[in-house]
Amino acid sequence: MSWMPPKADIKNEKLVKAYMWTTIGAGGLIYFLAALRLDSRIIDLNLGMLVVITVVLSSRITIKIPQFGSQISVSDTFIFLTLLLYGCEAAILMAATEALLSSFRSAFCRRPSTILFNWGCAALSACVTAYTLVLFFGDPVSLNAGPLSARFITAMGLMALIQ
Fold first, then answer.
1. Claim: this prediction has a pTM higher than 0.90
2. How many CB atoms are located within 10 Å of the residue 41 CB?
């Protein structure tokens, strides 16, 4: 007689798989739409260098957050910078691409579904962050047009809180 997991475990496993594949699908849709909506006129050498630095170097550098046991990678800072300099679509594409490539390098991400889940989560997260800024402050690129202001600092705080 073989051991069978309880029905609750089977149900939870199905819910987890449904959540994972829904996240992957939604993230893929967001990534595809961001790629379609990206204004090709903003693509320049500076953006290319920012992408290379983010994908190759910054994801390997992390900063521990005291008293929380978690950490933030420096790549998040570059993704925020991309949002402010190049807009929502560029930031979404960069965040998801960085997550995908970081997952390939990671020791704990070996299953394709986990790698795709990380990619989808990054696209979703960047999308929510970017378009929440649009909702409250308008175009994120216009936030860096003037001198440092209370509006800019509030937007940065909201961006960090959401992300």
1. no
2. 6
